[in-house]
Structures are given as C-alpha cells and as structure tokens.
Amino acid sequence: MAVLKFRIYFEEDDSIYRDVAIKHTQTFLQLHQVILKAYEFDSKHQATFYRSNDNWQRGREISLAQYDKQYKVAPLLMENTVIGSEIKDPNQKFIYVYDFVKNWSFLVELISVSKEESSKIDYPALIKSEGIAPSQYGTKGIAGDKLTEMEEKYDLKAGTEGFGTEGDDDDDLGEGEGEEAEEGGQDDEV
Questions:
Q1: Tens digits of per-residue pLDDT, 53-80?
Q2: Which helix (H) or strand (E) holds 184?
Q3: Pairing of strands 3-10, 125-130
Q4: Residue 9 per-residue DSSP state
Q5: What's the whole-model pTM score?
Q6: Which residues of the chain carry a pLDDT beneath 50?
Q7: What does DSSP assign to residue 27?
Q8: How does DSSP classify residue 151?
Q9: Which of 47, 50, 110, 178 minimizes the number of CB atoms within 10 Å of its CB?
C-alpha cells in the first residue's frame, strides 16, 4: 500500500512546515485532521483544499462541507474523497484553507511516495515539525510559555524598581552621573 508524504508549509513563512505521512487510501478528511493536529489548531471552523499546480493556482475544491457560497463546480467532499484519486502529478500540490474568517492558508506539496508502510506508524502521522507554528487565536508568543515565565520571573511589567532617575536624592547613581562616570573614567563622590 502506498504511503504519501506531504510537506505542509505555512503560506506566510515557508520556513515553518510540517511533514505528514498518509496512506493513499485515506481521505482528505483525515489529511485535514492531521494538519490541524500538527499546527495545534482546533477543529471548530470551515476548511477546504484546492487542487493546485506549480504556480499555486487554485483548482478543483475538496471541501469539508458544501458551504453557502457560489461554486463554479460543486466541490468534492473531504470525507468521500480518497487522496490517491486526486494525485495527478508526482509533485502534486494542494492549497489548504482553514477558518474562512482568519483565512489560514497552507501550501501542501507531495514530497515522496513510498511503497511500504511502517508497522510502527499509525497513519496519518506527523513525521517532522520545523519552525514555530502560528497561534490560531493570537495568544501564544514566539517563545510560547517561556515568554510568560520570563515576564513573571523578572516582573518585566513592573517597571523601574531599583533604577533612579536624574535628580533623585538617593544614593543610587542617576542617569546623568552614570554617564559622567563612564566618560571621565572616574567615579564622582556623593
């Protein structure tokens, strides 16, 4: 049984991608689900695939459902469409769009076909993850939880505790005194 390996690029940054392996007899619904899992997105929104060419032009639509919009040709449905039936080229490409309001777009490219499946893998499967995935709802920073931990540890939001300002009467150096000390190479006595 053939196993297809797809690379799913985040359209806005091709250094962010996920490689997934799926059997040619599995459906686009299963591909849709593994993409969402790979990018840590929920499954609450509309989605569709478009068959594509080397120029990433949108062709025949393979949709999660028939949506209330104009179609040139009725879409194929993900749950009824076997992936192998839509592979027309050894470098077949698809465009995957998720959440029509946010319009998350991913470029899906067939990168290899293997004739043997691995008994150790439960298909479809994420097999490689590169780059930090975008956050679906904009709540995850670049460093994810690490950024939040750093803010709490160093209390970056607290402000300037421990720093004096020019004109303070404290024993701390103010901005003006610190600059003079650095420039002159000597410390002023307070």
A1: 999 999 999 999 988 888 888 899 999 9
A2: helix 175-184
A3: unpaired
A4: E
A5: 0.71
A6: 140-158, 173-184
A7: B
A8: H
A9: 178
